[in-house]
Write a structure and sequence with these properties.
The protein has a single domain, classed as tt1808, chain A, CATH 3.90.1570. It is built from 3 helices and 13 strands. Strand 8, helix 3 and strand 9 form a beta-alpha-beta unit. The protein is globular. The strands form 4 sheets. Strands 3-6-8-9-10-11 form a 6-stranded mixed β-sheet. A 3-stranded mixed β-sheet has the order 5-4-7. Strands 1-2 form a two-stranded antiparallel ribbon. It starts with a helix and ends in a 9-residue tail after the last strand. The protein is α+β, with helices and mostly antiparallel strands.
Length: 183
């Protein structure tokens, strides 16, 4: 499926309870986040904005991803300079993105989508940092240094540990409160 075909399908299929994504030619369904998921994003957002007030945390901004920008992903949040997506449509150019953030959902697709497919898609796109907050394993995974379609560095930390986000994000996240938002 081509990116343009997907965009037409996603527009027709727009509902309040799901979001569609196209990663590596596979159509995926992303459930609308639950309350705990939203609390984690809010907590990350607060810390990012306090430590880097010149940046902004965008929620649910669609991105053209993969090496040839043929995929369409809707990360839970994106860290980018203020006004990075002004004048762009629903599926934006990922060039200004400093960090993509995903929080795993409690659905059957989360393993393939968040832990494998998006890691590859974001690395191919050249997004410098991918922060995956894994509610199943109660840990944060920080992927960085994309090169040749893969992230060359992965740092895993359990919830409760401080997590250093490398440049260009360049901050430290407190993950202690994330323990409150897992099953």
């Amino acid at each position: 499926m081509l990116g343009e075909e997907f965009e037409r399908l996603a527009e027709v299929a727009a509902r309040d309870d799901i979001r569609l994504e196209l990663i590596h030619g596979k159509l995926g369904v992303k459930a609308v986040p639950d309350g705990d998921h939203n609390e984690i994003i809010r907590w990350v957002m607060r810390q990012c904005l306090q430590q880097c007030p010149e940046l902004w945390m965008y929620q649910e901004q669609g991105l053209c991803v993969e090496a040839y920008r043929t995929g369409r992903a809707r990360p839970d949040a994106l860290l980018a300079p203020d006004e990075s997506f002004a004048g762009q449509g629903e599926w934006a150019d990922p060039a200004p993105v400093l960090m993509a953030v995903e929080v795993t959902s409690y659905d059957s697709d989360s393993d393939a989508r968040d832990r494998r497919d998006k890691v590859r898609a974001y690395a191919e796109t050249g997004i410098p940092v991918y922060l995956l907050i894994d509610r199943d394993s109660c840990e944060t995974l920080v992927y960085s240094e994309p090169s040749n379609g893969i992230y060359s560095t992965l740092v895993r930390r359990p919830f409760g540990d401080a997590v250093e986000l490398p440049a260009p994000a360049g901050m430290v996240l407190d993950t202690e409160r994330m323990k409150n938002w897992v099953r």
